Amino acid sequence: MLNDFVNQCKSLPSNSKLLILGGGYSGQHIAALAKSLGNEVICSRRSISSPGADCAFDSKIQKLPTNNCLANVTHLLSCIPPDANGNDPVLQNLNSKIKSMPLQWVGYLSTTGVYGDCKGEWVKESDQPKPQLKRSQIRLQCEKAWQKSGLPLQILRLPGIYGPGRSAIDNIRAGKAKMVDKPGQVFSRVHIDDIAGAIFHLIHLASEGTMPNIVNIADNHPSSNVEVMQFAASLLKTSLPPLEPFEIAAKQMSPMALSFWKENRKVSNHLLCNELGYSLVHSDYQSGLKDCFKSKQ
Fold first, then answer.
1. Under DSSP, is residue 127 helix (H, G, I), strand (E, B) or coil?
2. Which domains does the chain have, with CATH numbers?
């Protein structure tokens, strides 16, 4: 939980102002950490009336942040995905304003989906992206657009995101547990606490002159969906549905759900943890799910 690791994080450099564009699950959590550390942070949501919104940004209706929200921003994090046309909403609508900011660091939350299907092998930042899915191809295009911006940019590639309110525990409690057996299939994950913690760690390294262009943020233990569900059920002391072969389960999956099962890779965090020195709060799904379970007690 956030309060359990606030003391492990350093606040942003003095006189910093963090602007988070896109206050969804990740954006809200990162903003909460910044506020807990005493930093000035502005978080955008589509509507100013949404919980946690400090300003409004909705590119669909051309609702842009006010000049006051954008003033004196030193650190910028974009959590906003590509729009329906495959363009980056932030660059498309705020490019000139962003370039006028006194920015020291810019982060763009992307996805490890850009690596494509790796047949269960490990992938690292130096591997050439080979996205097969349309949404991942579009995401790679947006990465390249950010890279061409000339901003002090770090691309942060994330695998499956989970945490309190969004985990296998919540799926079981909601009666949505599925036990799909596909031998050899694994998924990489990251707890929301480690997304926030890693970002602050990277910002501090950047202030000291260390700033790799691309960083994977993932835990140490890629694992099967069955392993994760079984551990979540053990915490809840409940039973699970019978194991179902993938070939049968796939017939009832949505196209979106099915697309996740088409790709198989293990995401390496060697750069983040071994070379850049970040210590994971939740090194594997066991630790992360215990945190999710504890948060609901």
1. coil
2. 2-165+188-221+267-283 (3.40.50.720)
